[in-house]
């Protein structure tokens, strides 16, 4: 999950890395007050999770507190990349003589985090790495013990940086690496890390992504930052349909009915498990089908959970029929899912034979499941029918 | 005493309904809470019937024939 | 033969008294020749029994009771405690650790993996269904109850490696139906950092005389496929590889998270299209549909034999 810039800066600050004397405002008035406190020229920055703020007019310079308020007013109303800002950051306009880059990211092949550093900050690090490899230092590090300063020093020294710049930035990169591990980040970047005329270093911007799986153990920090437990921080906000899906999943701990994502087609999908869902979604599209949704059922869901999910999908406007399909299941019971989806139809006053385009879940308790499906006249397929073929049959049943 | 939901029905012999010991055993045995112990009386929780996983733990906990689990989707076949 | 496991493999189940563990212990005992599940560990529950398997408080007690080193462990302990359980297993001489648990933070996984490497142990997973040598032994919930696993898996010469547990069984079942059995099937897990990637298992399959071809299941996200392509090219592998890739639709939705934790498309190198191209360069065939896999495998084996 992505943190807003103002949150990321706070995290960086707590790690002992110098930051500017910034403030977070949700109104023009608050922005004015912060600008007054800062007492000099400021930068007003929209707090959205998407990029391209500068281009969209979400970053403005202000010479006076009144101007700061004016810009804040406008930016607070400005939608960028489909997102409305959470607020604005009011930053003292910094005078820097050079910009650097400091970052930490996971290397899934080496299975270790890696520190990245460049003396060419302020631009896209990937671009720098490609065009000026000598200006990028990297160093993998073990997570079995806390990062020691020499490790960061080595990375910075690779770029040729020396003198007091080296000795002053070493602790900064070290602290960034430590916070990366301690705070369960998947990305932690300070770009640019600015050097003032006096040779001091400050984080002028910060970008952090925290691993979703770690949220439970980072609760205290997240609560402190004001991050709501229900916020997913995905590339876009969840729709009511998706939130309803989460509701179905969270109401009952038996099994999983997850990752419900809304699309706008006419074939509702009750699919799983993870890999199976991806495969089936591809298959439906390959056959020209128009999915109304994506989802991942798995684990050992109760009849109630399977029913809840099926009902949600069946009632989605525009859905003509649903297809219930999974890869061969080991710990999900075919008969339980069959009960759930049939019950959903019946409770909605629909005919399961008509509404369920196909049921293709081979595996555990399939004989029992087939009995139920036959009793209700639902068309089903066993393992001799591939997932691809099952998807085709489902798509065929939807009127063009 | 018999209760049917959509897929599963459960029948408890009338002579066993007020067996307090059985009521307690059934409530403890069922992993999906089909049975409740209503002050020493066996109660069938209708809303949980369709969650039955055919585990037979209720049958194992009862005197032979006291409890019957019926598969309504299989022409009333009784779980053996 | 097989990789990683044999009929002689002994293992414990950590977290054995939990619902999922009780289930999979039964399955492992019933499958094939019947696994040698020599103990279970749940702190505080020493003295109990699960399907006849004695439960201990510590791994050390289980090893002592067994009287000789124990080969493996299946770990089902909740995410907050998994790292501790895995370190305990490895510190007590266990060499193959199958981690079923999902949602473990990456930094914990990185630590476990490093610790394992330092002790010459292998971790399979996390977030995986385990390993199966058809008709011989299974470690983990893979394939489900014994009679279901027996339907889907059959002994043969194809090594199967999959990031999705369910798809390991789906692909193996397709192979079985076409008369192509599996030497060993490994569900390697869906997370961004896992114990053994495709490339890391290849040397084991390469050394296994029984294995004649490899089938892999893969998804967008991460660079494990590129790593595999590199390995195959650098090592002049004798094993033809047929791949199936799911989640192609994700190329159109960067930053959204579907499937497993490791499946987020961020940047060009991770996309399905990129990966397929990279695999093709290394001579790895990517099937359009799973039903095509058996024919492609036969074709590739014949090609190698003729060459």
Order of SSEs of chain B: EEHEEHEE
- Tell me the series of helices and strands of chain A, N- to C-terminal: HEHEEHEEEHEHHEEEHHEEHEHEHHEHH
- Rounded mean pLDDT score of chain B: 95
Helical element count of chain A?
14
**Structural class by sheet pairing and helices of chain A:** alpha+beta
Instruction: Tell me what portion of residues of chain B adopts beta-strand conformation.
Output: 25-35%
Strand runs of chain A, count: 15
Biggest interface, chains and residue tallies: A-C, 53 and 67 residues
**Radius of gyration computed on alpha carbons of chain A:** 26 Å
**In which range does the helix fraction of chain B lie?**
10-25%
Structural class of chain B: alpha+beta
Tertiary shape of chain A: elongated
Would you write up a description of this structure?
Chain A has 400 residues and is α+β, with helices and mostly antiparallel strands. Chain A has 14 helices and 15 strands. Chain A is elongated, with a radius of gyration of 26 Å. Chain B is α+β, with helices and mostly antiparallel strands and 80 residues long. Chain B is built from two helices and six strands; from the N terminus they run ββαββαββ. The mean pLDDT of chain B is 95. In chain C, α3 (79-91) runs parallel beside α4 (106-118). The model of chain C has no long low-confidence stretch (mean pLDDT 93). At the A-C interface, α9, β13 and α14 of A face α4, α5 and α6 of C.
Q: Can you tag this structure with a few keywords?
A:
heterotrimer; A: 400 residues; alpha+beta; six-stranded antiparallel beta sheet; four-stranded antiparallel beta sheet; 14 helices; B: 80 residues; two-stranded antiparallel ribbon; 2 helices; 6 strands; 29% strand
Produce a short descriptive summary.
The complex is a heterotrimer of chains A (400), B (80) and C (307). Chain A is an alpha+beta fold.
How are the SSEs ordered, and which strands pair?
The complex is a heterotrimer of chains A (400), B (80) and C (307).
Chain A: H1 5-14, E1 23-25, H2 28-38, E2 42-46, E3 59-62, H3 65-76, E4 88-92, E5 96-107, E6 112-118, H4 125-131, E7 136-140, H5 149-157, H6 163-182, E8 185-196, E9 201-203, E10 207-210, H7 219-225, H8 240-251, E11 256-262, E12 267-272, H9 274-286, E13 293-298, H10 303-314, E14 321-326, H11 334-347, H12 352-355, E15 356-360, H13 366-375, H14 387-396
Parallel strand pairs in A: 12-14, 14-15
Antiparallel strand pairs in A: 1-4, 2-3, 2-4, 5-6, 5-8, 6-7, 8-9, 8-10, 11-13
Helix pairs in contact in A: 2-3, 5-6, 8-10, 9-14, 10-11, 11-13
Chain B: E1 2-4, E2 8-12, H1 20-29, E3 35-38, E4 41-44, H2 57-61, E5 67-71, E6 77-78
Antiparallel strand pairs in B: 1-2, 2-5, 3-4, 5-6
Chain C: E1 10-14, H1 19-30, E2 36-41, E3 49-50, E4 53-56, H2 59-66, E5 72-75, H3 79-91, E6 96-99, H4 106-118, E7 122-124, E8 130-133, E9 137-139, H5 146-152, E10 155-162, H6 165-177, E11 182-187, H7 198-207, E12 213-218, H8 224-235, E13 241-245, H9 272-281, E14 285-287, H10 293-306
Parallel strand pairs in C: 1-2, 1-5, 2-4, 5-6, 6-7, 10-11, 10-12, 12-13, 13-14
Antiparallel strand pairs in C: 3-4, 8-9, 8-11
Helix pairs in contact in C: 3-4, 7-8, 8-9
């Amino acid at each position: 999950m992505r943190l807003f810039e103002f949150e990321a800066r706070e995290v960086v600050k707590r790690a002992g890395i110098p930051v500017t004397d910034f403030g977070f405002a949700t109104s023009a008035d608050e922005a004015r007050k912060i600008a007054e406190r800062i007492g000099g020229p400021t930068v007003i920055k929209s707090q959205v999770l998407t990029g391209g703020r500068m281009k969209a007019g979400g970053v403005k310079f202000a010479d006076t507190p009144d101007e700061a308020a004016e810009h804040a007013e406008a930016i607070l109303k400005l939608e960028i990349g489909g997102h409305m800002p959470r607020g604005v950051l009011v930053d003292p306009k910094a005078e820097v003589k050079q910009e650097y880059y400091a970052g930490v990211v996971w290397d899934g092949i080496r299975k270790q985090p890696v520190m990245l550093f460049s003396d060419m900050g302020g631009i896209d690090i990937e671009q720098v790495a490609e065009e000026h490899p000598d200006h990028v230092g990297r160093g993998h590090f073990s997570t079995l013990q806390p990062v020691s300063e020499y490790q960061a020093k080595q990375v910075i020294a690779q770029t040729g940086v020396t003198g007091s710049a080296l000795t002053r930035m070493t602790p900064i990169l070290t602290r960034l690496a430590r916070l990366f591990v301690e705070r369960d980040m998947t990305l932690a970047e300070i770009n640019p890390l600015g050097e003032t005329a006096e040779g001091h270093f400050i984080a002028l911007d910060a970008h952090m992504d925290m691993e979703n799986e770690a949220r439970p153990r980072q609760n205290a920090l997240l609560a402190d930052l004001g991050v709501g437990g229900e916020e997913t921080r995905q590339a876009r906000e969840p729709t009511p349909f998706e939130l309803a899906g989460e509701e179905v999943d969270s109401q009952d701990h038996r099994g999983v009915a997850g990752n419900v994502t809304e699309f706008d087609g006419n074939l509702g999908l009750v699919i799983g498990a993870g890999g199976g869902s991806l495969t089936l979604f591809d298959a439906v599209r390959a056959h020209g089908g128009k999915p109304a949704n994506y989802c991942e059922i798995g684990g050992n869901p109760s009849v109630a959970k399977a029913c809840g999910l099926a009902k949600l999908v069946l009632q989605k406007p525009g859905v003509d029929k649903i297809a219930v399909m999974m890869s061969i299941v080991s710990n999900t019971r075919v008969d339980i899912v069959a009960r759930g989806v049939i019950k959903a139809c019946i409770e909605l006053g629909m005919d399961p034979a008509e509404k369920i385009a196909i049921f293709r879940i081979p595996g555990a308790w399939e004989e029992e499941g087939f009995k139920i499906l036959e009793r209700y006249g639902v068309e089903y397929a066993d393992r001799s029918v591939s997932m691809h073929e099952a998807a085709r049959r489902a798509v065929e049943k939807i009127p063009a | 005493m018999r209760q049917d939901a959509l897929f599963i029905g459960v029948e408890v012999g009338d002579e066993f309904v007020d067996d307090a010991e059985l009521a307690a055993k059934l409530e403890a045995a069922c992993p999906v809470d089909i049975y409740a112990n209503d002050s020493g009386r066996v109660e069938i929780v209708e809303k949980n019937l369709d969650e039955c996983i055919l585990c037979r733990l209720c049958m194992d906990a009862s005197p032979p024939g006291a409890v019957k689990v019926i598969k309504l989707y299989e022409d009333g076949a009784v779980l053996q | 033969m097989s990789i990683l496991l044999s009929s002689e493999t002994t293992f414990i189940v950590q977290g054995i008294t939990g619902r999922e563990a009780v289930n999979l212990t039964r399955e492992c005992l019933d499958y094939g020749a019947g696994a040698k599940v020599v103990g279970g560990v749940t702190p505080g529950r020493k003295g109990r029994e699960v399907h006849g398997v004695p439960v201990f408080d510590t791994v050390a007690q289980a090893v002592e009771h067994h009287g000789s080193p124990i080969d493996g462990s299946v770990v089902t302990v909740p995410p907050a405690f998994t790292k501790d359980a895995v370190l305990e297993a490895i510190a007590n001489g266990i060499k193959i650790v199958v981690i079923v648990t999902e949602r473990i933070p990456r930094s914990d996984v990185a630590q476990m993996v490093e610790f394992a490497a330092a002790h010459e142990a292998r971790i399979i997973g996390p977030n995986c269904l385990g390993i199966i040598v058809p008709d011989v032994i299974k470690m983990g919930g893979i394939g489900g109850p014994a009679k279901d696993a027996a339907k889907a898996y059959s002994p043969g010469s194809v090594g199967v490696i999959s990031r999705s547990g369910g798809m390991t069984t789906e692909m193996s079942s397709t192979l079985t139906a076409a008369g192509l059995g599996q030497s060993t099937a490994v569900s390697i897990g869906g997370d961004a950092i896992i114990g053994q990637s495709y490339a890391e298992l290849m040397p084991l399959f390469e050394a296994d005389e029984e294995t004649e071809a490899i089938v892999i299941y893969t998804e967008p996200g991460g660079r494990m496929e590129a790593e595999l392509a590199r390995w195959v090219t650098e090592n002049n592998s004798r094993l033809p590889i047929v791949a199936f890739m799911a989640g192609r639709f994700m190329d159109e939705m960067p930053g959204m998270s579907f499937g497993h934790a490791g499946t987020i498309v961020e940047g060009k190198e991770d996309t399905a299209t990129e990966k397929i191209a990279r695999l093709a360069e290394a001579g790895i065939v990517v099937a359009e549909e799973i039903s095509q896999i058996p024919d492609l495998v036969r074709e590739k084996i014949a090609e190698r034999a003729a060459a």
